[in-house]
């Protein structure tokens, strides 16, 4: 999946994202704090939730995207707005759901579904009465023409840089046995967390794990080897034995150090997880990373950024306000986010006549953001 264009409006909170066009592989959202960078990622994640049956109060959307089957899709819709302080999920009582007022789905300019409050027309035929609270993608996901759309939207992956990866995680024996004869493709296509995928890969496909290890060592050249193994009994406090049962941990071997090290730094661990995500996420997915720089040291930001920028199999939409990252990524990839009240716009560096030179471009960007920030205060 590659998102081409997105428009989003949350009527309840009076927050609107004007139509934004994304590059097919790498997009760096930059802007002052509070401009709306994180909310753009949340809006994209919400579309995945809507495709899976979520009912979101006051939300209106339209998205254009291409799929791995070479089709282009357009999907739009609008929920009614009720007086409520928070989104409504699919586990709420039915009386609390919000209805979909209208919804449209097109494939290569051909209308597949047209919906209003009274009826759903699917391929020119009126359907039996269906739930008014769920998207047509959820309601008709078993249909041959709808199921690939659902699969594409499920390839949206949000990586929370603060909370996504724990240094110790569980790999139950039953889960390992389920995947012990799996192919690399099966592991990539699974919905398992990245650390669990990595631990399984280490055990059953050592040659594939070696690629991740070598990419990691190329960044941290004082590291000789990596192991991903169960936590030893002697390393588990008695009072935590139940909690850490079947726990798995990363250990590294460094040059000049005799013992294996298991308490690796947050930056090293985060780097390993980012590399693993590149190798182990499904192809043609959309990876969203908020505040990419968190926990990454200056010594590895360049290398990890280069790996992501050069990764052609997926689309990345990343936020950052770290000068070092912005200054070391070509302005060609910048998407400059500005806000006037509840209206958020995203423009390219070219729109603001920013130089393609990185150093000159960064100075131009500072001036643009300063001007936009002053305008928003007027």
Q: Which descriptors would you attach to this protein?
A:
single chain; 378 residues; alpha/beta; Rossmann fold; 2 domains; 17 strands
Overview of this protein structure:
- The chain has helices at 37-51, 136-139, 147-153, 173-179, 184-189, 194-204, 206-219, 266-280, 298-309, 323-327, 358-377, and strands at 2-10, 15-21, 26-30, 59-66, 72-79, 100-107, 110-115, 120-122, 125-126, 156-160, 168-170, 223-230, 247-254, 286-290, 315-319, 334-340, 343-348.
- With 378 residues, the chain is an alpha/beta fold.
- The chain folds into two domains: 2-162 and 283-377, Rossmann fold (3-Layer(aba) Sandwich); 168-263, no CATH class.
- Strands 9-8-7-6-5-4-1-2-17-16-3-15-14-10 form a 14-stranded mixed sheet, sandwiched between helices. Strands 11-13-12 form a three-stranded antiparallel sheet, covered by helices on one side.
- A hairpin with a 4-residue loop joins strand 1 (2-10) and strand 2 (15-21).
- Helix 6 crosses helix 7 (206-219), helix 6 (194-204) crosses helix 8 and helix 8 (266-280) runs parallel beside helix 9.
- The model is unreliable at 90-95 and 236-241 (pLDDT under 50).
Level of helix content?
A: 25-40%
Do you know the CATH topology of the largest domain?
Answer: Rossmann fold
Count of discrete domains: 2
Query: Which regions contain 5 or more consecutive residues with pLDDT less than 50?
Result: 90-95, 236-241
C-alpha-based Rg, rounded: 23 Å
Give the strand order of the largest sheet, numbering strands 1, 2, ... along the chain: 9-8-7-6-5-4-1-2-17-16-3-15-14-10
Mean pLDDT: 87
Provide the CATH top-level class of the largest domain. Alpha Beta
Q: Any idea what the CATH architecture of the largest domain is?
A: 3-Layer(aba) Sandwich
> What string gives the helices and strands in order?
EEEHEEEEEEHHEEHHHHEEHEHEHEEH
The oligomerization state is single chain
Q: What fraction strand?
A: 25-35%
Distance between the termini: 40 Å
Secondary structure class reads alpha/beta
